[in-house]
TrEMBL record:
The organism's place on the tree of life at top rank: Eukaryota
SMART domains the UniProt entry points to: PKS_ER
This protein's name: Enoyl reductase (ER) domain-containing protein
Keyword presence, Iron: no
C-alpha cells in the first residue's frame, strides 16, 4: 500500500486548540474498521456548538474517541470490519448511511460502530442526512425517552429556533402534543416557528414576556407536562412555575449559568416534578445503540428535507465547502446563523459542510481552497460539510 492509502485529509487545529482561524485541512492517519465497525467515506458532516467548545479546549471527546472534531456525518461504506455481533449481514460496501460518532467526522473517512449508522433514504441529500443524527437524537432523547411525552401533553420548548428546538417542536406535534409553546428572543422567530407545517402552536418572547404566565394562559392554568430547557439559571424558577403536576423537565445545557441563587423547592415536592439533566456524547455505546434503534423505528422514516412532505423536516441554513470551515465556525460563534435575517427560503439556522469526491474515489480540492464541495447548514446547533 502507498503512504497515501494509510492517510487521509482532515480538519485539524493548530496547537490542538484555539480560535476558528486555527482550523486547517491537514493529513491524519486513516482509520481502519475494527470488530463491529464500518469505515465510511464521508460526504457531509455536521457542525455543532460542541465542536466550537472542543476546538477551544473546553469539551474533550469521550475516552477512546477520535480527537478530530465532528460527531455526525453522512457517507458511503467502504470497508466492513470483523464482526461478532450479528450486524455484518445488514451492511455492504457501497451502502449510503448517516451516523453518530464520539468524534472524527471532520475528515475524509471515519470508523464507526455498525450500530451507530442508519441507511440513508434516497429522498435525503447528503447534507440533509448529515444534519439529522446529533440534533434529532438529542431532541428525541430529551422529549421521548426522558420527557416521556404522551398524547395530549402540553410541551414547552426553550431555544425554539435552535436545531434541537425545531426538532423537538416537530417531534412533540407528531407524538400528539396538545399545545407546543416555544420561547425565542424575537417575534420574527416566533412567527417562523408558528408557520412551520408541524411547528409550535404558541410562542413567547422570553425577553419581553413571562413565559410561565404565557404557559398558564395557554393551558388554562394546568401548566406544561414536559419542558425542554437549554438555558438553566435564568429560566429555572419560571420553569418550575410553568410545570404541571407530575411534570417532567429535561435540562440539556446551562447557557445562562449554573447557579440559581434562590429557589423555592416546595413546588418540586408537591407537584411531584421530575427534573433530569442529560447529555448524549458521553453516554455508553449500549445506551446510544438502543437510542438510535428506537429513533430509527419510531421516527426516522417520517423525516424529509425542507422541500419534502414529511411530518418532520430538517431545515438547513447554509452550505459551505470544507475549505471554508473556519468561516462556518466564525458564523456560528457570532450567532449569525440564528438571526432572522439569515433565514433564506424559510430555513432555520443550521449550518452544514459538504465535500465532493471524484468518481474514482479520490476527493477533489485541497487545503488551499480549491475544493468544489459545499457546506450546508440549518438550525443553530448543527451544520454539515461536504467532501
Amino acid at each position: 500500500m502507498s503512504q497515501q492509502e494509510f492517510t487521509m485529509r482532515a480538519v485539524l487545529i493548530k496547537g490542538d486548540q484555539g480560535s476558528a482561524e486555527h482550523l486547517y485541512i491537514g493529513t491524519a492517519p486513516r482509520p481502519t474498521a475494527r470488530t463491529g465497525e464500518v469505515l465510511v467515506k464521508i460526504k457531509a458532516f455536521g457542525l455543532n456548538r460542541m465542536d466550537i467548545s472542543q476546538r477551544e479546549g473546553k469539551y474533550p471527546p469521550p475516552a477512546g474517541a477520535s480527537t478530530i472534531l465532528g460527531v455526525e456525518f453522512s457517507g458511503t461504506i467502504t470497508e466492513l470490519g470483523p464482526n461478532t455481533d450479528g450486524y455484518r449481514s445488514s451492511w455492504r460496501v457501497g451502502d449510503e448511511v448517516l451516523g453518530l460518532a464520539g468524534g472524527g467526522a471532520y475528515a475524509e473517512y471515519i470508523a464507526v460502530k455498525q450500530t451507530h449508522i442508519i441507511r440513508k433514504p434516497s429522498h435525503l441529500s447528503w447534507a440533509e442526512a448529515a444534519s439529522i443524527p446529533e440534533v434529532f437524537l438529542t431532541a428525541f432523547q430529551a422529549l421521548v425517552v426522558i420527557g416521556q411525552i404522551k398524547e395530549n401533553d402540553n410541551v414547552l420548548v426553550h431555544a425554539g429556533a435552535s436545531g434541537v428546538g425545531v426538532a423537538a417542536i416537530q417531534l412533540a406535534r407528531v407524538y400528539g402534543a396538545h399545545n407546543v409553546i416555544a420561547t425565542t428572543s424575537t417575534q420574527e422567530k416566533i412567527d417562523w416557528l408558528l408557520g412551520l407545517p408541524n411547528g409550535a402552536t404558541h410562542g413567547a418572547n422570553y425577553k419581553t414576556q413571562d413565559f410561565a404566565a404565557v404557559v398558564k394562559d395557554v393551558t388554562q392554568n394546568k401548566g406544561v407536562d414536559v419542558v425542554i430547557d437549554f438555558v438553566g439559571q435564568s429560566h429555572f424558577t419560571k420553569n418550575i412555575d410553568a410545570l404541571a403536576v407530575d411534570g417532567r423537565m429535561t435540562m440539556l445545557a446551562l447557557l445562562s449559568g449554573t447557579v440559581v441563587e434562590s429557589v423555592n423547592l416546595a413546588p418540586i415536592l408537591y407537584k411531584r416534578l421530575h427534573i433530569e439533566g442529560s447529555t448524549l456524547r458521553s453516554r455508553s455505546l449500549a445506551y446510544q445503540t438502543e437510542l438510535i434503534d428506537r429513533f430509527r423505528r419510531e421516527v426516522f422514516s417520517k423525516i424529509t428535507g425542507e422541500d419534502g412532505n414529511g411530518p418532520i423536516r430538517t431545515y438547513i441554513y447554509k452550505v459551505y465547502p470544507w475549505t471554508e470551515i473556519s468561516a462556518a465556525h466564525i458564523e456560528m460563534e457570532a450567532n449569525k446563523n440564528s438571526t432572522t435575517r439569515s433565514y433564506p427560503n424559510n430555513t432555520t439556522n443550521t449550518t452544514s459542510t459538504t465535500m465532493s469526491g471524484q468518481s474514482n474515489g479520490s476527493t477533489k480540492g485541497s487545503g488551499n481552497g480549491t475544493s468544489n464541495g459545499g457546506v450546508k447548514g440549518g438550525a443553530s446547533s448543527t451544520g454539515a460539510v461536504f467532501f
